[in-house]
Design brief:
With 237 residues, the protein is of the alpha+beta class. The chain contains eight helices and six strands.
């Protein structure tokens, strides 16, 4: 059914419940049709900034490594209270040179997430070619408390994860992103590299995978928490 709310940029349809079969078809054909599925709720739509500049996701051409390096919080100062001070630079990236964004495992993982969300979230159809572009297209304001983070640069990072790990933006909450991950990191090197990227992307230094955690988590501990993890959660205070 069509949404009966105030029009949201690029939101073409809003269904009452996720439809896994439709979700799968839309995700598979999104590059051609520019009709991409995403799960969300009504509170999410209240956080769409209608006054924001209408950026075209197709025009985003930014280097994700440069973005993450700019956002990296290291190095920690000598008097930093961290149990594990951050290094001056991000670890070398992993998973380069592959494109899992349209792999059948990626589509299957995201569809499984949509199936599990029945009764919890609604399903939207957004006018974009890939899930990584959804927050920008909706003018989502979930990172608004961090002035150095803008949606075009976040889009570049989300595309990189979509390509390298089959990490699909599956749910957009008012201040939360949930990504289904088809090929999560497994080795210690991979996990530490990806963990550092997560820290740069979501800077609260509180474990974004554990909602109730209130104390900072060392990078090495966080790296272990995402080993083989098929769901990545990011939350901005």
């Amino acid at each position: 059914m069509k949404t009966d709310r105030e029009p949201v940029p690029k939101l073409l349809e809003l269904l009452a419940e996720p439809d896994p079969s439709l979700y799968r078809r839309l995700l598979r054909d999104a590059r051609r049709s520019h009709r991409c599925p995403v799960l969300l709720n009504d509170v999410t739509l209240d956080r769409c900034d209608f006054e924001a500049i209408d950026e075209n996701p197709a025009l985003v051409d930014l280097d994700p490594r440069t973005v993450l390096s700019d956002w990296w919080a290291g190095p920690c100062l000598p008097d930093c209270p961290c149990d594990e001070p951050l290094a001056a630079e991000l670890p070398p990236p992993v998973g380069l040179g592959r494109d899992l964004s349209r792999h059948r495992a990626t589509i299957a993982a995201a569809t499984g997430f949509a199936r599990a969300a029945h009764g919890i979230a609604r399903m939207g159809v957004v006018e974009v070619a890939r899930p990584a572009d959804v927050p920008l297209a909706l003018r989502w304001s979930g990172m608004c408390n961090y002035g150095d983070r803008d949606l075009p640069r976040a889009t570049a990072v989300l595309r990189s994860w979509e390509d390298r790990f089959g990490a699909v933006v599956s749910f957009v909450g008012p201040d939360t992103l949930l990504l289904s991950v088809a090929r999560p990191p497994r080795s210690s090197e991979e996990c530490r590299s990806v963990a550092a990227e997560h820290f740069a992307f979501c800077p609260d230094q509180v474990d974004p995978q554990v909602e109730l955690r209130t104390t900072p988590i060392p990078l090495s501990e966080y790296a272990e928490s995402i080993r083989g993890e098929f769901l990545w959660r990011f939350w901005w205070d």
